[in-house]
Design goal:
Strand content: 15-25%
Strand order of the largest sheet: 3-2-1-4-5-6-11
CATH topology of one domain: Rossmann fold
Order of helices and strands: EHEHEHEHHEHEEHEEEHEEHEEHH
Radius of gyration: 20 Å
Helix content: 25-40%
Largest sheet: 7 strands, parallel
CATH class of one domain: Alpha Beta
CATH superfamily of one domain: NAD(P)-binding Rossmann-like Domain
Bound molecules: nicotinamide-adenine-dinucleotide, UDP-4-deoxy-4-formamido-beta-L-arabinopyranose
Length: 350
């Protein structure tokens, strides 16, 4: 493993920067490509500070085929972790072409370049959002898919493309078949324990934890709890929150798994990365108040369109085949979110 070079697309972003830390600490060489559309290069400087190791950063858009080809020509890449993409559900409804162009076409360019370079090990950032409303809790990987917004459909389309690519190699009896892990993330939260890297959303956050932590620090006045009439114990929505450091450790396990017995004949397989434990919105608010000693001002508001009552993973397949399980609990997630937010009230802005 040591000295293997991993290409990390979107490596300057929230999850990508945490992945870079774990990769460097595990002894990999890291090449990041990112167009910084939703991140700052400062995150990568912080990664180097945490690890005491350096990485290569190329400021480029993955849709720039020639630039991407040059990266594969310049570095001995053995596998790719593909985080680059746009991720805001509401924005995807307003700008569907932008989302399909970035997430779907971007992945087409990446896989074409990988195939031409004969680099065929890929870990893709998918999402629990690909599951349909007919899936039931806890979600297993074989449940029906049916994303309900352009963002989710862009992830589902990429999953289809990657399955087709793998199937073509099986039909063609390729001697170097594609080996692809589709990692379906549930709700990543938290930050590195150093407090140096974390989630730095642009503008007013859409997601619960960044919103709660900005209320706690006084940047936002009040949290709206979207619905208290769901069929859940306290009436608020339940999600499977997972510490971002546990999540990225699943990617390191996936690199090993792609190179091992499970993928000996190639293939494309999906794995849930969640804890298997659901928490409600009010559980999160209460945990945040208990761990930080701050009061979270909130009000009950109407349900948000498109939200499910409850969504949590069965992560058994990831344990069985990737050898991965979470190590951190809700208090770690909340404490690390707060450590990052309170040390960096304006994110990566000086
Ligand atoms: P992020 O926005 O922080 O990171 C994505 C990175 O990709 C950013 O640094 C951005 O600048 C870069 N990028 C976007 N388009 C690019 C392009 N065309 N070329 C090069 N770089 C590009 O998001 P994140 O939370 O770190 O998410 C990483 C991945 O995980 C995304 O694909 C996202 O859809 C997926 N995901 C995220 C969540 C979540 O809740 N955060 C859940 C499920 C899946
Ligand atoms: C969590 C819970 C809200 C904000 C989204 C994407 C999904 C994935 C992860 C990428 C829900 C409630 C939230 C607020 C609230 N991303 N909430 N007040 O919706 O589960 O998932 O992020 O793949 O695709 O849809 O996460 O953090 O937005 O919401 O009450 O201000 O918090 O209703 O129950 P969600 P979230």
């Amino acid at each position: 493993m040591a000295n293997k070079t991993i290409l990390v697309t979107g490596g300057a972003g929230y999850i990508g920067s945490h992945a870079c830390v774990e990769l460097l600490e595990a002894g990999f060489q890291v090449v990041v490509v990112d167009n910084l559309v939703n991140s700052k290069a400062e995150s990568l400087a912080r990664v180097e500070k945490i690890t005491g190791k350096s990485l290569v950063f190329k400021h480029l858009d993955i849709r720039d085929k020639a630039a991407l080809q040059q990266v594969f020509a310049d570095y001995p890449i053995s596998a790719v972790i593909h985080f680059a993409g746009l991720k805001a559900v509401g924005e995807s409804c307003q700008q569907p072409l932008n989302y399909y162009h970035n997430n779907v076409y971007g992945t087409l360019v990446l896989t074409e370049v990988m195939q031409a370079a004969n680099v065929k090990q890929l870990i893709f950032s998918s999402s629990a959002t690909v599951y349909g409303a007919d899936a039931c809790n806890p979600y297993t990987e074989d449940m029906p898919l049916g994303a309900i917004n352009p963002y989710g459909r862009s992830k589902a389309m990429v999953e289809d493309i990657l399955r087709d690519l793998s199937e073509a190699d099986r039909l063609n009896q390729s001697t170097n078949p594609w080996k692809i892990a589709l990692l379906r993330y549930f709700n990543p939260i938290g930050a590195h324990s150093s407090g140096l890297i974390g989630e730095d959303p642009n503008g007013i956050p859409n997601n619960l934890l960044p919103y709660v932590s900005q209320v706690a620090i006084g940047k936002l006045a009040q949290l709206s709890v979207f619905g208290d009439d769901y069929p859940t114990p306290d009436g608020t929505g339940i999600r499977d929150y997972i510490h971002v450091v546990d999540l990225v450790k699943g990617h390191i396990k996936a690199i090993d798994t792609l190179a091992g017995e499970v993928f000996a004949q190639g293939g494309c397989k999906a794995y849930n990365l969640g804890t298997g434990q659901g928490y409600s919105v009010l559980d999160i608010v209460n945990a945040f108040e208990r761990v930080t000693g701050r009061t979270i001002n909130y009000k009950i508001a109407p349900r948000r369109a498109g939200d499910l009552a409850e969504c949590f993973a069965n992560p058994a397949l990831a344990l069985e085949e990737l050898g991965w399980q979470v190590e951190k609990g809700l208090d770690d997630m909340v404490a690390d979110t707060w450590h990052w937010q309170s040390n960096n009230p304006n994110g990566y802005e000086a």
